[in-house]
Amino acid sequence: MGVRVGIADDSFLIREALTRLLSDVDEVDLVVVCADGEELAAAMEDHQPEVVLVDIRMPPTMTDEGIRLATRLRATHPTVGVIVMSAYADPAYALALLQSGSEGRGYVLKDRLHSRAQLLATIEAVSSGGSVIDPEVVDALVHGRSPLHALTPREHEVLVEMARGASNGAIAQALGLTKRAVEKHINSVFAKLDLPQSDDVSRRVRAVLLFLGETGGAAR
User: Which end of the chain offers a freer environment for a tag, N or C, measured as fewer CB atoms within 10 Å?
Assistant: First the structure.
């Protein structure tokens, strides 16, 4: 039995293409295909998908329904992975997707969905709690900079825990540090990654995006 997968996309062509890609592979059990996010949300209990692929723009507003659904599922179905599909390499959408944590979240561009192997790898990573962010999105965010090499080993460990969605208290416990020491390391990470002054949640998410982009989406 493969990963139980659901799809929500208002484009008939996209739904058909994804169905053909996923319906005859052992790694996936395609359990529900819907035309919008509300239909998928209503089908969660009956079909119990483990990962859902959702269009970023769906009815009724055609703006960010996929992001909203991901946030909603974080509260109602926290173990369900969400892969948001977009035609746009817009880091603002990825930042919004990761605001509630990076665990079990993916952001992929639709023009890459023709690769069955890549799609299956993304589904597998997200189903196991990992994160996958399209490299083009990360490039758009950092403009080609790769500043992670400036981090100390301890700062890198802290960033890995941040990418797992851990709170400062959880990071302190995992690494045997005080919360104050964790806060100092996080501030140093922000400074070395040249993240502009803003609210801590936004900078935290940006730091995680940088990490995921450099490590191929692995935060385990």
Answer: N
Q: How far is CA 49 from CA 44, 56, 85, 208, in A?
A: 7, 18, 17, 26
- The domain 142-214 having CATH identifier 3.40.50.720: the answer here is no
Both structure tokens of 17: 């293409």
Per CATH, the architecture of 3-133 is what? 3-Layer(aba) Sandwich (3.40)
- Going from N- to C-terminal start, the domains of the chain cover 3-133, 142-214
pLDDT at 21 (0 to 100)? 92
For residue 60, cis peptide bond before it (omega within 30 degrees of 0): yes
Look up the pTM and report it.
0.74
- Burial status of residue 144 (CB atoms within 10 A of its CB: 0-12, 13-18, 19 or more): exposed
Write the CB contacts of 90 (distance below 8 Å, at least 6 apart in sequence): 137, 140
Beta bridge partners of 96: none
9: left (phi over 0), alpha (psi -120 to 50) or beta: beta
Sequence-distant (6+) residues with CB within 8 A of 57 are 63, 64, 65, 66, 86
Q: Are 80 and 105 in contact (CB under 8 A)?
A: no
The confidence score (pLDDT) of residue 139 equals 72
Predicted pLDDT at 193: 84
One-letter amino acid of 153: P
The confidence score (pLDDT) of residue 146 equals: 56
